[in-house]
Design a protein that fits this description.
heterodimer, A: alpha+beta, Methylamine Dehydrogenase, Chain H, 4-stranded antiparallel sheet, 28 strands, 18% helix, 36% strand, globular, B: alpha/beta, Rossmann fold, 7-stranded mixed sheet, 8 helices, 7 strands
């Protein structure tokens, strides 16, 4: 089995060769796309092994027991890379591994990756961006918070201490004198709670607070929901630059806040999605924001006014592929199509330039749906129309994991784990001259394909079975809420009894709260 | 299963206009604000049907019917919900059995007051009580006739912006919130640096946020977090004189009465919403 490249990105230093950065399991490759050779390679190593021996248990981290298991299992393997991004200056690469660590690399003159820092975040990062100042990272996490960190930590010694182990709770003996339960006999009334309080008063050792992060960081804003994406948007107002942070969450919200130092000011919300939002995409040169997620349409927003310009339907296009798949596999068509509404899950949104019929440069939106073997290509000019919902569907045969533009070609990373070759598929976009006026067509970019051969040929066997790979690559559908538990039982709304409501509506105090998605 | 359905049936036994009995609506006091629950909430504030909650304030001109075009239009009236003559301006977040709501309603007869509560049974109780009070009292006997008070089930920590537009509210009450004693639960508290930004979003400049609790630690936590937030400033001393709702809040909430019975201490704090700073 060949491990797919879960993230790809382009590095384009002015006056130098173009590089493609590709993450494969725990490894990052940097390929010189001009010369067609691998310039450097880096592998994340498991730094957590030391702490996975049971320290976790003693400390009572904030993870559920089941999840603790998962992290310690993961620790025996090298951590996988889950995000990869390049600074605007093209000088730095930032990678996030699934042990919550943010890695910063400098790209040296000869395309070498020089690891500069590793910082372990308190919660798993879901989205990360280097701001245009090339000095700040913003990181949105699973717990709903957005932090800013300096790209280059000011004190190197401090960051070295902040190895992944540091986030684990240290059992500290607190002075008896300093600890006082915040509950008193006046605030707890039931017998059981009184007893618990008494026991607490007599207890001598307390497993104390989490250690604060040992590196410079700032909490900018937060949702009480899992964040799924974050983008930084700038626009000119009265000749002055105004910057914003746009965050998307699992509870259908898109929030627009001011950028630091005023990130406490919420300017507004783009509301209208009825399912989770998983991806945001700003259209360069416009005030248009495109959002996608669990709804069978893309939101096209005029984000400065928080207005939904249109819902761009992609259901038909996705249905089309599902129908074709069903025909191939011989599955029951009506059944598959019935489920299709829930199957439309946008997992990726990108923009790519293309030359229109007059040779002028335009932009196209590229849309990937999770586990769907095609990519939708929509020219921005069509996105802005009121009605037209036509688009170009490229059948690429495998699901699209990531997309990046390098030179004038668009490189797709595909999940070809069983099929073998073709993990990276470069193509060129152009405006078709056929009947469908304005549509974008594509052809394979053989030249780039040859250049990337060095990478796809290299043996990059990661120890991953199908299940582990699925977990790494396809998390978006799990964001969907299981609503209306009566609905699935044949559509009849069961009248909930009180006890059931209690189960559903409230939870015991000791049950750990976490913003995890509970899988069915 | 014998107990609860019985309780449910007994709720229905009462006559129309009769007050609901609290004992049939009790529900344990802790809800996990992070879980999905089975909530209903509007996609956006414009899609919220307030007519069901404040029937006396529905505008007589029929509202626009939804258009075929799914695209939201500029005026935001295409959700098929009735237009209202007034908007909700006062929110009691975690209103419980609604003691404060029903005490405030006659004192602010011209203002729509809304309780938000995460527990289903407790929400139902408040809704029933509002209905009963509306039957029992006319606007002549009691100012407002309790037409200006209602309650919805909501998880405000997640969905506050789904109900209220920017600067819609003049007052928010946070009365006797769940203290979440454990340090690792502090993110579940109703007051936090990041949530305060959402309160600032829905409260208009000059509006006020009121907090009350019997847990001193929580009081300090709330004061600390509101004072640290650049959009809020604590109001103290003589500036509070003449704020009648403050007195009502201290004495009229159900939880406040319980604290008084048990001889507890009540800690009160008031904060005002400042203007947003100019863009840098």
């Amino acid at each position: 089995m060949t491990h797919p490249f879960q993230c790809i990105a382009t590095v384009q230093l002015p006056g130098r060769d173009e590089y493609l950065a590709a993450a494969c399991g725990p490894k990052v490759f940097l390929v010189n796309a001009g010369k067609g050779e691998i310039a450097s390679e880096w592998s994340a190593s498991s730094l957590t092994t030391a702490t996975s021996n049971g320290n976790d248990d003693a400390a009572g981290t904030s993870e559920r027991p089941a999840k603790k298991q998962k992290t310690s299992n993961a620790a025996s393997h090298a951590p996988n890379i889950i995000k990869l991004t390049v600074s605007l200056s093209q000088q730095y690469i930032v990678a996030v591994t699934d042990d919550k660590v943010i890695h910063v690399f400098e790209i040296t003159g000869h395309g070498e990756l020089k690891a500069l820092s590793q910082r372990c975040m308190p919660k798993r990062p879901c989205a990360i961006q280097v701001l245009p100042d090339n000095a700040t990272i913003i990181c949105a996490d699973k717990f709903g918070d957005v932090y800013s960190l300096p790209l280059l930590p000011s004190d190197a010694a401090l960051t070295q201490n902040a190895s992944p182990g540091a986030e684990h709770v240290d059992v500290m003996k607190t002075d008896e004198a300093t600890f006082k339960p915040s509950a008193t006999n006046l605030t707890v009334h039931t017998e059981r709670n009184r007893k618990a309080l008494e026991a607490q008063m007599q207890q001598k050792n307390f497993s104390a607070k989490k250690e604060p992060l040992k590196f410079e960081h700032k909490l900018l804003l937060g949702h009480v929901s899992m964040l799924t994406d974050v983008v930084f948007a700038t626009r000119q107002v009265d000749g002055k630059q105004r910057s914003h942070i746009i965050t998307a969450d699992r509870d259908e919200h898109i929030r627009i806040s001011r950028a630091p130092p005023q990130s406490h000011v919420i300017e507004g919300y783009c509301l209208g999605h009825s399912e989770f939002v998983s991806k945001l995409c700003l259209i360069p040169g416009t005030d248009i924001l495109v959002s996608g997620g669990g709804d069978s349409w893309l939101g096209v927003w005029d984000w400065p006014s928080f207005k939904l310009r249109r819902k761009f339907d992609i259901r038909a296009a996705v249905l089309d592929t599902i129908r074709q798949d069903a025909e191939v596999s011989g599955a029951d068509k009506t059944d598959t199509i019935k489920k299709a509404d829930k199957d439309v899950v946008v997992s990726g949104l990108w923009t790519a330039p293309f030359a229109n019929a007059k040779g002028k440069q335009e932009t196209a939106l590229l849309v990937a749906c999770e586990r769907r073997p095609s990519l939708l290509i929509i020219p921005i000019s069509r996105l802005m129309l009121k009605k037209d919902e036509s688009m170009t569907q490229t059948r690429v045969g495998h699901s699209v994991l990531d997309v990046t533009c390098i030179g004038d070609s668009v490189v797709l990373s595909l999940d070809t784990r069983s099929a073998g070759p073709g993990r990276l598929q470069p193509m060129k976009l152009f405006q078709s001259s056929g009947n469908d006026k304005g549509a974008v067509d594509y052809e394979r970019d053989e030249e780039m394909d040859a250049k990337l051969k060095c990478l796809t040929k290299s043996s990059t066997d990661a120890h991953a079975d199908d299940k582990a790979l699925d977990e790494l690559l396809y998390g978006v559908a799990n964001l969907r809420k299981r609503r209306g538990w009566g609905d699935d039982a044949g559509g009849t709304q069961v009248d909930p009894s009180d006890t059931k409501r209690d189960d559903n509506g409230t939870e015991a105090m000791d049950v750990e709260d976490d913003l995890t998605v509970h899988k069915p | 299963m014998a107990g609860p359905p019985n309780k449910r049936q007994k709720r229905d036994d009462k006559q129309e206009g009769q007050m609901p009995q609290k004992k049939f609506y009790r529900q344990r006091a802790h809800a996990n604000p992070f879980s999905d629950h089975d909530l209903t909430y509007p996609e956006t504030p414009e899609a919220m049907n307030w007519g069901d909650h404040y029937p006396s304030y529905v505008a007589t001109v029929p509202a626009a019917v939804p258009k075929d075009d799914p695209v939201a239009t500029e005026d935001g009236n295409d959700y098929g919900v009735p237009r209202m003559t007034k908007q909700v301006e006062v929110a009691d977040i975690g209103c419980g059995f609604g003691g404060l709501l029903f005490a405030l309603a006659p004192k602010m007869p011209e203002t729509l007051i809304l309780g938000l509560e995460i527990r289903t049974s407790v929400t139902e109780f408040v809704q029933e009580k509002a209905k009963a009070l509306r039957v029992q009292h006319s606007p002549e006997s009691v100012p407002g006739g309790y037409q200006n008070v209602s309650c919805i089930r909501a998880n405000t920590m997640k969905f506050l912006p789904n109900f209220f537009a920017k600067a819609q509210l003049s007052k928010i009450f946070l009365c006797f919130p769940d203290p979440h004693f454990k340090a690792r639960k502090h993110k579940a508290r109703i007051v936090s640096t990041t949530l305060n930004s959402e309160y600032a979003f829905v409260v208009r400049p000059g509006g006020r946020v009121y907090t009350i609790t019997d847990v001193e630690d929580l009081h300090r936590w709330m004061v600390e977090h509101f004072e640290a937030h650049p959009s809020f400033e604590r109001v103290e001393g003589e500036e509070l004189e003449g704020d009648e709702v403050l007195k009502v809040m201290t004495t009229e909430t159900e939880e406040g009465k319980k604290v008084e019975r048990n001889g507890g201490t009540k800690y009160v704090a008031v904060f005002t919403r400042l203007e947003d700073p100019p863009w840098p």
